[in-house]
Amino acid sequence: MYVYLLTNPNRTVLYIGVTNNLPRRLEEHSNNLGNHGKFTGRYQANLLVYFELLPDPIQAIAREKELKGWSRAKKEKLIIGFNPNWEAIDLETWTGPANDS
Q: What is the value of pTM for the model shown?
């Protein structure tokens, strides 16, 4: 299970979600761009900037709720610790957080 954060090109919005298949879910978000009925479509939020792998749905949902309760500043610190330049993460080429060896 994954908890993930998306942003838009201007980094003005953050979207937090949970899924059991991150590549599929990212594709769904990208396909909804421009769909004003969906948050990610309305705000063009389809750039993955952070994710966590969790062992089961209960823990993933709990973590999602925890992150949603955080301030914007605290979420930004989390992202910066994982992805300092807020680069859009490509799951096929991602080598991990910058501080990993």
A: 0.89
Where is pLDDT greater, at 34 or 40?
40
Please list the residues that pair with 48 across neighbouring strands.
Answer: 6
Pick the more confident residue, 39 or 54. Answer: 54
Edge-to-edge strands of the sheet including 2-7? 14-19, 2-7, 47-53
Which structure tokens are listed for 87?
């680069």
Tens of pLDDT along 42-64? 888 899 999 999 999 999 999 99
- Beta strand extents in the chain (DSSP E only): 2-7, 14-19, 47-53
Nearest to 5 by CA among 65, 77, 75, 84: 75
**Measured between alpha carbons, how far is 18 from 56 in angstroms, rounded to an integer?**
11
How far, in Å, CA of 100 to CA of 84, rounded?
12
Asked if 29 and 43 count as a contact pair (C-beta separation under 8 A), the reply is no
Only one residue has tokens 């990993």, namely 100
